[in-house]
Amino acid sequence: MVGGGQGAFIGAVHRMAAALDGQIELVCGAFSSDAEKSRLSGEELFLPPERVYGSYDQMITSENELLDGERMDIVSVVTPNFLHFDPTVKALKSGFHVILDKPMTFDLEEALALKQIVKETGLEFALTHTYTGYPMVKQAREMIRNNELGNIRKIYVEYPQGWLSTKLEDTGQKQADWRTDPMRSGMGGCLGDIGTHAANIAEYVSGLKIRSIMSNVNIVVEGRLLDDDFDTFIRYDNGASGTISASQVLAGAENGLKIIIHGEKGGIEWRHREPNSLVLRRPGKPESVIRSGVDFEYLAPITKKHCRTPSGHPEGFIEAFANIYRNFALTVRSRIFDETLDPDFNDFPGIEDGVTGMLFIEKAIESSKKGHQWVDFKI
Amino acid sequence: MVGGGQGAFIGAVHRMAAALDGQIELVCGAFSSDAEKSRLSGEELFLPPERVYGSYDQMITSENELLDGERMDIVSVVTPNFLHFDPTVKALKSGFHVILDKPMTFDLEEALALKQIVKETGLEFALTHTYTGYPMVKQAREMIRNNELGNIRKIYVEYPQGWLSTKLEDTGQKQADWRTDPMRSGMGGCLGDIGTHAANIAEYVSGLKIRSIMSNVNIVVEGRLLDDDFDTFIRYDNGASGTISASQVLAGAENGLKIIIHGEKGGIEWRHREPNSLVLRRPGKPESVIRSGVDFEYLAPITKKHCRTPSGHPEGFIEAFANIYRNFALTVRSRIFDETLDPDFNDFPGIEDGVTGMLFIEKAIESSKKGHQWVDFKI
Amino acid sequence: MVGGGQGAFIGAVHRMAAALDGQIELVCGAFSSDAEKSRLSGEELFLPPERVYGSYDQMITSENELLDGERMDIVSVVTPNFLHFDPTVKALKSGFHVILDKPMTFDLEEALALKQIVKETGLEFALTHTYTGYPMVKQAREMIRNNELGNIRKIYVEYPQGWLSTKLEDTGQKQADWRTDPMRSGMGGCLGDIGTHAANIAEYVSGLKIRSIMSNVNIVVEGRLLDDDFDTFIRYDNGASGTISASQVLAGAENGLKIIIHGEKGGIEWRHREPNSLVLRRPGKPESVIRSGVDFEYLAPITKKHCRTPSGHPEGFIEAFANIYRNFALTVRSRIFDETLDPDFNDFPGIEDGVTGMLFIEKAIESSKKGHQWVDFKI
Amino acid sequence: MVGGGQGAFIGAVHRMAAALDGQIELVCGAFSSDAEKSRLSGEELFLPPERVYGSYDQMITSENELLDGERMDIVSVVTPNFLHFDPTVKALKSGFHVILDKPMTFDLEEALALKQIVKETGLEFALTHTYTGYPMVKQAREMIRNNELGNIRKIYVEYPQGWLSTKLEDTGQKQADWRTDPMRSGMGGCLGDIGTHAANIAEYVSGLKIRSIMSNVNIVVEGRLLDDDFDTFIRYDNGASGTISASQVLAGAENGLKIIIHGEKGGIEWRHREPNSLVLRRPGKPESVIRSGVDFEYLAPITKKHCRTPSGHPEGFIEAFANIYRNFALTVRSRIFDETLDPDFNDFPGIEDGVTGMLFIEKAIESSKKGHQWVDFKI
Known about the structure:
Order of helices and strands of chain A: HHHEHEHEHEHHHEEEEEEEHHHE
Number of helices of chain A: 12
Radius of gyration of chain A: 20 Å
Structural class of chain A: alpha+beta
Mean pLDDT of chain A: 96
Oligomer: homotetramer
Largest interface: A-B, 43 and 43 residues
Strand content of chain A: 15-25%
Helix content of chain A: 25-40%
Largest sheet of chain A: 9 strands, mixed
Number of strands of chain A: 12
């Protein structure tokens, strides 16, 4: 693991997600650029001191010298955005598969370069767009794939947050600090942090691709350096329209991602707040509330494979995260041991999702800067 | 009553709303332009045959000749849009107060003319933007007025419907027929039918005024003559941004108006589906679910005056509608009998709301036609 | 109308319910045993002074002397329990149909006497167990009738309230005052006020009859004279078991009636808080949320006939109440005018429900007094 | 780990729960009484073959011979009920701390014997009553402890399930097979499987003890050997009354534990379906929805310590389970390393809860057999 030392938020989630299914063992880490902090973090995690490194360069070099079967297989990169590209590239070039936090890189240029490197190395690469790991999100995608909603017409995605409703970055709060800093976060604030999730889930569930975008990107909290709120109109490749809105300044809002998709034959609604329910609406029929659970025969096979508990036993964010880790681990493992892989497990966000995310940030800003024009969604 | 004969939808709702509080008695009507149909409708409503008229012209003339105290006091106009202006103007010019269904007129020009006539006659005029009649909508407005959310930053309004997801107008369905016909509905389809409600509630609750609008107006169902789906970005007069989206082609969707408003200190969410609850979110506090009920001392005085039942006894659409009728009746009555009127009852949508609604339609279409530019929201 | 003068709660609801559908006109009343209060109440209701009476005796006598067609047709009795029997009997004996608030009488003896009189006079009689007026409650009953849940196994009814959680009767609050007074309320407090509703909805929806009962009846608030909380085990005539619990001392609780019924093939859940939704659960299928609305073809015909608005336009307590009044009015009217009556409208609680309610009170108390034994539910 | 081999349900949940926080490592197991099956299960779990045992006797003996620090510290027993006592006692007597699935033992006699042994060995013992591991359940307990609801008056617990609504045990389904078999499950069916959870959460949250019980215990599915449905009246030691109902034959029901507690000053409601929300109701105030999240300062300190994610990131069943494992691990660790333990972590169900559970089963059956009398809840 690169990053995720004491005080970090997402590192601990990555570790729980990786541990949950017993497919991945944390064997080493460079948890901080501060060697002492890295050491302490490793100690807390019961790692042998010799495998807790003071830098990711050192980690990659040292691990590379270990024997097959002892050496780490996967590098998990959980640093702030500006530190995504370098460790990822180095790990890939040294032959390690990589799982990386989103947004993928600092900018689109890096994203395209990384895409090239992933292609060249032929290694596995995953991006932790967590929301696509939820069973009910996969169920929605399957239903749309199976044409249960007919041709898609409309997609609404709303991603409200409230934690940046004051100038939190001035208080030294670590998460706010780097996320609002253009030098570490990249050109997108809210766009990068949660907008990319919103765009990703829209494409993942609908199976459509964004064709063009028009945006209204705002800095609401005075003095902030990056956007903290935006609305967009989206046009998808099949002609469907929609909106993606996200904000981090909605005082009092939780982390409340919602997606509504309607086609000619019906619509679905999924809300992160109740992630184990998926509402299906069809003309002339009662609403259906599709519920997660390994024992529900009516669920799509891929859905059931991403549930861990029987119906009535809620799963949450860590389990969704773990689905990405588990699938990535099984995919890597199938390569290492030359095993057949159930294609339902070869399902995790990857390099293309990462490029789309960076494109989303850049195009949204471009549209807003150009006086809110429609902008083609292409590189 | 003008319009609302057999087979009409909203006429019956108007009658129930008017009857609910015992303040208004239906005394006469011109229920249809078909005299026989009007006669039959009047019979069903237990009206004396001599006060069931074959046309509104006849009704206004005849009623005018009746004695004080016997003559109708208020004319309720519930016809399709193209038939709003003429009976309303004639009623006003004959000295009758008017309550009119939305959208106010066929076009903005008529709206401005009507505004002038209302001003000249000095009579009372109400527009049935029902949603502002809900107690919890009034509560939200009061809380914002009292600065409980701080300076408003963001307003999301979503108004999904699904009933026009097929080309229902081709089946002869009466409601679809005129609502999708530019000659009877005006230039707005979805914009006029539900978009005006959405814009109205946004302004009513927030206390803000729309300053500019950018829109993406769509005709989704092939061959339809008027818009059936739109998204807008809105800029309000205090600088707040937001979106208003509405659609009538979301197959399977009910009539699901939702509004979310956030300010610097918190946010509210109201959904028509559960109209008796208002969710309040504030940083660092549990969510509050404010509930309707005459017995809840914590509600604003104006809220309680618009509840009819104690807590735990749900009220609905007809009651909200009735609040507009009741307030209008009390306002008219206070004029007739020169009584003092509690200002909390002098609260119903009027001529200005009607002009705003027509402006909303015209400006949304203008923005969309101009390649989705920002358009100033002024006459 | 007998009772329901200024300051009363349920009288106003009865009037709104009666007015809603334009089938019933309030023509006279004895609104209070205090003649002046009755007069003032009548004035507020725009009644002609000569038809506002100082007592129900006077009202019945005077109305009786009026001409056919001018005379009232129906007497609505909305007084406290101890004043149910006398005006009802007198009205019936004078040839008036009666609609009466629940619980039916002061005690079981009166209930049986009333049953005899209703039988002898052959007149129409309704009891306002409001909850059976909700469209979704009727839908649940139809589904069970059509064997959609299979043989019924279990019925849970919970009716929490909190308004009597302190000794409110000592403050002079009118509703608390008579409801906790054995001389005016009868032998049941919570049992009579809301327990009878709970028992009624259980039998109505399930189509089953209570066969035996075991109870735990409590007085929680010290010094109170009547029960304010109870739990019961119920055995139904088909062998199904269940519980009925109600309480008026659950501080903070709204008026939260809930019913859950499960059979061999599935179960339903209805909550008064969201009365327009009925949840259906079946093994191996997604949950269904059946929703009210005149436009929902999937609803049972009887359900649709008890909706007034299209889907997505919530109805509430007053509309449910009005369904009882409307059905009663149509039933009476069909007798007066010798019209055919749609049997779906001949659906309102009546004398048998009233007897069952009084039995429920008496048997619950008997069981509790006998050390919580099973008691047969028969007269 | 004892039990939990291939095909088992709860074993996998135990393993995920143990792994989640990185405090516990699975080092060995006797996963099945079938040695080959145990071996295969161990292989799947990446255990070294020499630490996968064919029986728990062998496991305990062999592990005992390992060196300090290499030897297992904790034994997790996840077998069917009849196999709880023996491995637990043997493990304890060999000096291992034990975490055991519920219900604690086969019968009350075993429970009392185990209590004695736990006392004698002085070792740590935990029982996985999962529901008490939820942060919002702990929050409810803290609020009651801090007198926020005042003196407790009423406790309703409802635990519906539907999976045994047919005679599933006849199909060979493994979970149904042993759970309905008196020889393996003990004298309680539904009572033991979920009734003990319901009783446990009632006592845990309220801080009260059951004083007496009256029950109606049913076998609904013909030919079943153990109860599959029951209702009880409960009297608590402070005089509060309540009901505990559970059923496994509610066709279509999920695993839907709910608890409602009201005191003189307010009430709480928690539903397993939305475990991250706790509803608080107080007279004269809006409802509060208290939400989980490490970042919510308003939560009790103990609550926050049992959250892993910030607000808006739902946690579920596995996390609740993991809270028990984590707390147990920290407690054991504080003994081993003689560290100070935060008392908020010394919070997991133990031997007393286990005895109460067995008492609940026996007393409920006793009451039902005695013609549904009140039975004192003591040994």
